[in-house]
Amino acid sequence: MRHSDERKRAEDRDRPNPAPGAEAKGPSRRSFLKGMGLVAGGVGALGGGIASAQDAEAAKETAGLEKLGRGARKVSLHVNGADHAVSVEPRTTLLDALRQQAGFTGPKEVCDRGSCGGCTVLMDGKSVCSCMALAIDAEGAKIETVEGIAADPANAKLIDSFCEHDAAQCGFCIPGFVTRAKEMLAANGGKPMAFDEARAGLAGNICRCGTYSKIFDAVLAATGAEVARRAENNVALENERSRTDVREKVTGAAKYSFDYYPKNVLYAKFIRFPFGAGRTTNMAVEAAKAMPGVVEVEAPSGARAEYPGDRLGHVAGESLDAVEDAIEAMKLAFRVGEVNADPWEFYEGPPAPDHETQSQLDGIYRSAAAIAEATYSTQVQTHSCLEPHGCVVDHKGDRADVWASTQATFGFRGDLVRSCGLDAEKITVHCDYIGGGFGSKFAAYAEGSLAARLSKKHGRPCKVFLDRKEEHLDAGNRPGSIQYMKIAADKEGRLLGGRIHCAGVVGHAGGQGRVNNPFAYDFGEVERTETEIRTTFAPARAFRAPGHPQGVFAVESMIDELAAKLGVDPLKMRALNETSDRRRHQAKLGAEIIGWDRRKPDGASSGRVKRGFGMGAAHWHFWPTQCEAEVAIHRDGRVEAISGVQDIGTGTRTVLVDVAAHQLGIDRKWIVGKLGNSNYPEGPGSGGSVTARSVAPAIRDAAQRAKESLLATVASEWKVDADKIEIRDGVLRGPGGKSIAWADACGLLRSEKISERGSFGRPGKGNDMKYLGMGDTSATQFAEVEVDTETGVVRVAKIVAVQACGQMVNRLTVENQVCGGVIQGLSYALFEDVVLDKPTGGMTNPNLEWYKIAGSMDIPPIIPVLDVLPEDTGVRALGEPATIPTAGAIANAVANAIGARVRSLPITPERVLRALEEKGARA
Amino acid sequence: MKAFDYAIARTQDAAIAALADGWKPKAGGIDLLDRLKERTETADKIVSLLPLGDLRGVEATKEGGLSIGPLTTLRELAENALVLEKFPALAHAAGEAATPQIRAVATVGGNLCQRPRCWYFRNKEWECLKKGGATCFAVDGENQFHSLFDEGPCHIVHPSNIAPALVAAKAQVHIVGAKGERSLPLEEFFLPTNKRLDGENILEPEDLIVRIVVPKAPEKSAYVETRQKQSFDWALASCSAVLLDGKWNVVLGAVASTPRRAAMAEALLGGGSIDETLAEKAADAALDGANPMSKNAWRLKLVRAVARRALLLADGKEAV
């Protein structure tokens, strides 16, 4: 198999490719345009004077065809009301010109193919994908980016509405949504918009965190439409305000590491093998080195590859275009080796148990009123973070600054020690904002190491970020699974036990294949075995609740299959086998809200489009973590709440601020949350849903110490005992009616600031255990779906997500994350799938076009029910449990609707139709 | 993207001369840029047609039909009052395509001429038949979204949303080339893969579509597509049913390498009113000639569904 680029015509290569920045000779396009009218209009008059008909023809051609060549030229872009001179080649996209030259990094590059709307700008008032527009074509157009939209007071209502509704998680997609919404509002003519209109209008934008619910609210409210209050809580709320950095995210001011374009930056890219396994048969390294703008090519010949996307070397150059041109010039050719793209070919079923176990199992099965035997499978899912993996490294002398897209500031730093050749303390990792991680961004990985090595070697900043195809191929994934279950139950529905065999479908290197099955319920006497099937695909990485959604899909499906056999209500059956009283309570609550009494027997819903209901459950364990934090009170009243941890979109910065505000008794306006910097006090990576519950007690500890220090100052001024002073609503009050406002009290400090460290999880340091977030969390979700039995298309009509969340630091961020978990689970249940070409092992859908992620039209109303009990005094984990039950609940709802079960994810029209067909054949 | 020479055509004549001189046309650029970015498109000289204002917009014809400029955007087509009045199925089909951002830029001509979305064709890794290679990788590979009807050798489906409606309404396409102007039924414009591999229609490099004419407003029309995702997704199958001159026209999309006329269904339907039984029969007949591949036979059910629904909807009946 040869690389298609080989067929490029020889003449392509004969044309010199001007180095970036080189200007084409001749008039600028603008002045040329002005002259055009005269020339074109003059053709007729000149015609008589031209010697031959041929010349006349040539003149006519020239007159009507404005040739711009292929080199860089200066054009002027009219962006946000001002002209910006940029130097672009015809191939330069509007997005690149805006981001790299005009300084507008609000529009983001995500899919780079017009599939996701992350790069949306307004061109003469119309929202378009700037990644699919040429900069050279945009001259003369009125371009508005999110920065311009946000700066225009006429759009205040829209911007404020996004902010007030907390319509951002990681925030990377939000500028695109805001820009699109601006046009929708303008077109709507001031009328209140309907929910379905909002969904349809936003169908070109993808949010990976699943912020749609809040985005819908924001857009609807901005049109004056009524927005239902989302949470149905059973307790009073702590905090009704949006995340502290929502405005930065909504206005495009938030700078992600991907948004850094330092001067003199070196770009690099990996050369990658496209198929399942094999080796290169041609790699013209010298040709690549000879290409203009190329700085370095490193590619050992005959390299073997183990998976699609495997790295064969790298190219570094002055621009990404130069690097990609060089890779093309290498005329890569490959031989495909032995490929395993189909786990079923290697699945051997459950191994036979030994004689004793078998006879135990036989005993269980004999005593059962019902036995269900089924094999379930789940697909490989890619994280598809909207901000790609990568970083900018600037290695200067004995120091290095790194702008990284990471969910572990300190882990990333540790990984770079070797590639930078520096001690950890000489490396500063910055990560102010991160555009999604979901478990795939804990380390520096190959791209981080490459950037570090090249920056050190060449003495200049180096930027390496993956493109969308690389994101799918080599940035981790949730492994697939095949799960065999044969489970027995008694006539009431009590689970008696049985056989479970789980095969994790993992990449070529193995690992990460564990599946959480059994889970949540007491399955009785279970004989469980597990194995791994290796495919020639990329290694898996942790993905939001690793092992859980896949296990719960099978577990919840199995319970409903047994319930159907026994004729028992699945809700009652779960209550019987539930291991948690808390979830029993949640199930009752959720069933009421979704209207479980509307659930009909399986397949009994009438009509072509059938309605069904299903449920699923989750728990999440607590485990110890450590976190350090710092609170500094300045003499002017400003407070800094600091920890080196990162905010992956969950609202960690807000946790810092709101916990400090609560502890200090002041409004959050005084406080700035600082994080995402490895020079700050150390905290954990954002995995296992630990960040909020680790950083909250640490910042509380620091705030308490800083407060005591301030009170001591005030106490000595007032000559009273410090413990007689309290701070409430920004006022310090002491005995004898003494009071002083916060800022005035801070003015009494004898130094510019007082700064105190706090910690969590350090043995022997003595924390307030009540605040520690000790303990597990749980979740129960209900899904209502509509299944078109003629087309097999599933639409989710409603989700009720009951979520135990301990002490809510901030209600809106909690709701947002719960809805996001549901939306990711929905997308996993119905759409996402890595499709490998069986013969070659290549990934056929490494994009956001055929790798399908739920969009606005696929998102139903979601009701997050925040299950808070008075005894839950701690901040608890919630990012992961919220995504665990969704696929299982949806699968059960589909089965209830159609009276037939789809046992593989995603639940595609094909699978629904096949299940119906098999049901028909049985009948 | 690889570097390319760029030019802007100010006149139609200049555009045609440029095409004859080896320049490749670009309108909205959505399809072209996608292939340039993937580096599967080898265009070295690209000419922008965007300034050709005469080629943009929709007008009523004297005969009561529509004359559509190829540079009209899908959004303009979807929102155009004339189209909504005279041929609502066409407006609906345009409005179902891609995303709002894409529809604002993508043109009618580009939609009719866009290259297939086949993943073996779109990804540079596979040097497939259509790209000059020796193999159609879909045959032994992932063909779930491929053709249900063709014999091959290449098994793409035609991706145009608007083509089925236009073909059903017997639209004519007007083309200007080096040798002058010609017009032909849009139905004959598309070529199946056994007639042509390096393109999906009869256009030669120097040809420019200058008009698409719907001769008269259909009496009734509907367009139905089904897709897995309701936000941006490609149709798994689509159908346009059009009653024209008292005769039903049924054309399928996304199931064959060209928009596919369901001739047997049409023969069965004649021009009468549609009821559930007739719609079912016609939908069954629409499957005539089906030749599914190893992984896509399930989509035949969708073909049946969209055909049935399009007919009922066109005749003003409940379909679901």
Largest sheet, strands/sense/barrel of chain A: 7 strands, mixed
**Percent of residues in β-strands of chain A:** 15-25%
Number of helices of chain A: 25
* Strand tally of chain B: 12
Percent of residues in helices of chain B comes to: 25-40%
- Average pLDDT score of chain B: 97
Stretches of chain B where pLDDT is under 50 for at least 5 consecutive residues are none
- What is the average per-residue confidence, as pLDDT of chain A, rounded to a whole number? 91
Within the largest sheet of chain B, what's the order of strands? 4-5-8-6-7
End-to-end C-alpha gap of chain B: 45 Å
Pick out the low-confidence regions of chain A: 1-52, 57-61, 231-237
Q: Regarding quaternary structure, how should these chains be classified?
A: heterodimer
Describe this structure in words.
The complex is a heterodimer of chains A (923) and B (320). Helices cover 32% and strands 22% of the residues of chain A. Chain A has 25 helices and 33 strands. Chain A has a seven-stranded mixed β-sheet with strand order 9-11-7-18-15-16-17, with helices on both faces. The longest helix of chain A is centred in the C-terminal third of the chain and has 28 residues, at 691-718. Chain A is globular. Chain B is globular. In chain B, strand 6 (172-177) and strand 7 (180-185) form a beta hairpin. Chain B is built from 13 helices and twelve strands. Helices cover 30% and strands 19% of the residues of chain B. The termini of chain B are far apart. Chain B is of the alpha+beta class and 320 residues long. At the A-B interface, helix 3, strand 1, strand 5, helix 12 and helix 25 of A face strand 1, helix 1, helix 2, strand 3 and helix 6 of B.
